[in-house]
Amino acid sequence: MSVSRTAAVSLLLLLAPWCVSAGADLKYPPARIESVTDGRLGVTFPDPYRWLEGNTQEVRDWQGAQARLADDYVEAWPHFASLRRQMERYVSNSNSSTRYRPHSSV
């Protein structure tokens, strides 16, 4: 396993217990529910969040609110700053190519 993959797995293992205990306090942005149905091979099913598949300002606003919620949640972890420094060190010292880019607002 590469260094960056090992670091990512380590991050998930470290955050997992904290995520379970802290998740109850999250205030998710509201998502509109529509009366939309779809069908495949003769089976009809509800698709109330289809509007989220669009590229509208409403969708971008909702995605931004979700991203802020996730950023605030992860950054609230007491060891986040230390873990971030370690991850950046692992990625910058890696000989393998990676798509990791530090988040600009963090």
What is the terminal-to-terminal distance? 27 Å
Q: What is the average per-residue confidence, as pLDDT, rounded to a whole number? A: 80
What is Rg? 19 Å
Biggest sheet descriptor? 2 strands, antiparallel
Low-confidence stretches: none
Query: What class do helices, strands and sheet pairing give?
Result: mainly alpha
Secondary structure tally: strands: 2
Query: Which percent range describes the beta-strand content?
Result: 5-15%
Instruction: Estimate percent helicity.
Output: 40-55%
H/E order of the elements? HEEHH
- The neighbouring-strand order within the major sheet is 1-2
If helices are DSSP runs of H or I spanning 4 or more residues, what is the number of helices?
3
Number of domains: 1
- The dominant shape is elongated
Can you tell me about this structure?
- With 106 residues, this protein is mostly helical.
- It has one domain (3-93).
- The chain is 50% helix and 8% strand.
- A two-stranded antiparallel ribbon has the order 1-2.
- It is elongated, with a radius of gyration of 19 Å.
- The mean pLDDT is 80.
Layout of helices and strands, plus pairs?
Elements: H1 3-22, E1 37-40, E2 43-46, H2 57-75, H3 80-93
Antiparallel strand pairs: 1-2
Helix pairs in contact: 1-3
Descriptive key words:
8% strand, 3 helices, mainly alpha, elongated, 106 residues
Summarize this structure briefly.
The chain has 106 residues and is mainly α. The chain is 50% helix and 8% strand. The protein has three helices and two strands.
